Amino acid sequence: MASVRLYLDQSLAEGQSVSPGRDQAHYLFGVMRLAVGDELRVFDGRSGEFRAVVRGADRRGGTLEIVERTRALQMPPDLWLLFAPIKKARTDFIVEKAAEMGAARICPVQTEFTNAERIRRDRLQAHAVEAAEQCGGTFVPEVADLVRLDRLLDNWPGDRRLMFCDEALVGAGAALTEAGPGPWAILIGPEGGFSDTERARLRAMPQASAVSLGPRVLRADTAAVAALTLWQSLLGDW
Ligand code: SAH
């Protein structure tokens, strides 16, 4: 089995020849040292996965022939992960884990106690791509721009349920109980937690269920993985 697995940002189909971009050519032919005739797996996030063969190895471009489709596109469940960005390495971790665990969309949100004022969306998106390459996913979740939580809630879709992970419920034993299928989102707060105003607003939303993640206060990155696990095991594709 070819071990290199690469995301290509162009629609793929059997029989096509494609040129990887400069960075990808550097990775394939410079770092991984693929040569003419070597095989790899490629995916585009919308058409599944393909077996490809190197037809031209050039560190500035080269040519890949898309030979055959090896897997169909597997969409994750309609689950968004909303989280307040924290320190760089921990934010990177959250994006990577969300992509691996099967979130369909990753939405950084600015809450009252969020320190980060901006994010590098392109860098976070690259982490989601790398996670999909590594975990065998055929879909890459989109990383959205940073938005204010109150603005996001102003326009919250009526049919999208919200798993509101509320640290005020530590130890309350209120896990996700009234779960039903359909579009969902998970909301994880920043290191400082949610403000009283935010908590009151979220608790009043008919789409929201306030949820406890056990008797200990988890760091936001741990909480994101725990919440994704809980949701996936109850309602997802595990
Ligand atoms: N500083 C806050 C904790 C914030 S933890 C305090 O001391 O209370 C960061 C985020 O992780 C929280 O906003 C919440 O979304 C989630 N979280 C952590 N532990 C949790 C738990 N036991 N139950 C529910 N959510 C939790």
Characterise the protein shown here:
The chain is an alpha/beta fold and 238 residues long. It has 2 domains: 67 residues, Ribosomal Protein L25, Chain P (Beta Barrel); 157 residues, Alpha/beta knot (3-Layer(aba) Sandwich). It is built from 6 helices and 12 strands. It is elongated and about 60 Å long. The mean pLDDT is 95. Bound molecules: S-adenosyl-L-homocysteine (SAH). The site of S-adenosyl-L-homocysteine has 18 residues, from helix 6.
User: How many DSSP E strands?
Assistant: 12
Query: How many discrete structural domains?
Result: 2
Shape by Cα distribution: elongated
Mean pLDDT score, rounded?
A: 95
Structure described in brief:
By secondary structure, the protein is an alpha/beta fold.
Key terms:
single chain, 238 residues, alpha/beta, Ribosomal Protein L25, Chain P, Alpha/beta knot, 2 domains, seven-stranded parallel beta sheet, five-stranded mixed beta sheet, 6 helices, elongated, binds S-adenosyl-L-homocysteine
Task: Outline the secondary-structure elements.
Layout: E1 5-7, E2 17-18, H1 22-31, E3 39-43, E4 49-56, E5 63-71, E6 79-83, H2 88-101, E7 105-110, H3 121-135, E8 142-143, E9 147-148, H4 149-154, E10 161-165, E11 184-188, H5 196-204, E12 208-211, H6 220-235
Parallel strand pairs: 1-3, 6-7, 6-11, 7-8, 7-9, 10-11, 10-12
Antiparallel strand pairs: 2-5, 3-4, 4-5
Bound molecules: S-adenosyl-L-homocysteine.
